Amino acid sequence: MLDGETAAVLRAVLDEVCGGVPRSDTTKRTNVASGLLQAIREGRSSIDELRIAGQAALHTAPSMWR
Question: Contact at 8 Å (CB) between 43 and 25?
Fold first, then answer.
Protein backbone atom coordinates (compact mmCIF):
# COMPACT_ATOMS: atom_id res chain seq x y z
CA MET A 1 0.00 0.00 0.00
CA LEU A 2 1.27 3.47 -0.86
CA ASP A 3 1.58 6.17 1.75
CA GLY A 4 -0.23 9.45 1.17
CA GLU A 5 2.86 11.38 0.09
CA THR A 6 3.88 8.77 -2.50
CA ALA A 7 0.33 8.58 -3.84
CA ALA A 8 0.24 12.38 -4.20
CA VAL A 9 3.56 12.37 -6.08
CA LEU A 10 2.35 9.61 -8.40
CA ARG A 11 -0.87 11.47 -9.09
CA ALA A 12 1.04 14.69 -9.86
CA VAL A 13 3.45 12.91 -12.22
CA LEU A 14 0.54 11.10 -13.90
CA ASP A 15 -1.24 14.42 -14.48
CA GLU A 16 1.97 16.02 -15.76
CA VAL A 17 2.88 13.19 -18.15
CA CYS A 18 -0.70 12.86 -19.38
CA GLY A 19 -1.22 16.62 -19.71
CA GLY A 20 -2.05 16.33 -23.40
CA VAL A 21 -4.02 13.10 -23.05
CA PRO A 22 -7.79 13.45 -22.70
CA ARG A 23 -9.15 12.06 -19.42
CA SER A 24 -11.43 9.90 -21.55
CA ASP A 25 -8.39 8.05 -22.95
CA THR A 26 -8.30 5.58 -20.11
CA THR A 27 -6.08 3.15 -22.02
CA LYS A 28 -3.13 5.53 -22.19
CA ARG A 29 -3.68 6.91 -18.70
CA THR A 30 -3.89 3.39 -17.24
CA ASN A 31 -0.72 2.36 -19.06
CA VAL A 32 1.13 5.38 -17.63
CA ALA A 33 -0.20 4.68 -14.12
CA SER A 34 0.96 1.06 -14.42
CA GLY A 35 4.39 2.22 -15.55
CA LEU A 36 4.64 4.56 -12.57
CA LEU A 37 3.67 1.82 -10.14
CA GLN A 38 6.20 -0.54 -11.71
CA ALA A 39 8.91 2.10 -11.28
CA ILE A 40 8.00 2.43 -7.58
CA ARG A 41 8.17 -1.38 -7.16
CA GLU A 42 11.65 -1.32 -8.72
CA GLY A 43 12.83 1.35 -6.30
CA ARG A 44 12.77 4.25 -8.75
CA SER A 45 11.00 6.90 -6.74
CA SER A 46 12.57 10.26 -7.55
CA ILE A 47 10.44 12.70 -9.49
CA ASP A 48 12.81 12.54 -12.47
CA GLU A 49 12.82 8.73 -12.50
CA LEU A 50 9.04 8.68 -12.35
CA ARG A 51 8.73 11.21 -15.17
CA ILE A 52 11.01 9.07 -17.33
CA ALA A 53 9.02 5.93 -16.51
CA GLY A 54 5.75 7.74 -17.21
CA GLN A 55 6.95 9.08 -20.55
CA ALA A 56 8.19 5.64 -21.58
CA ALA A 57 4.83 4.11 -20.67
CA LEU A 58 2.97 6.85 -22.55
CA HIS A 59 4.91 6.18 -25.73
CA THR A 60 4.34 2.43 -25.51
CA ALA A 61 0.63 2.65 -24.67
CA PRO A 62 -1.55 0.60 -26.99
CA SER A 63 -3.72 2.58 -29.32
CA MET A 64 -6.70 1.51 -31.33
CA TRP A 65 -5.38 3.68 -34.19
CA ARG A 66 -2.06 1.89 -34.66
Answer: no
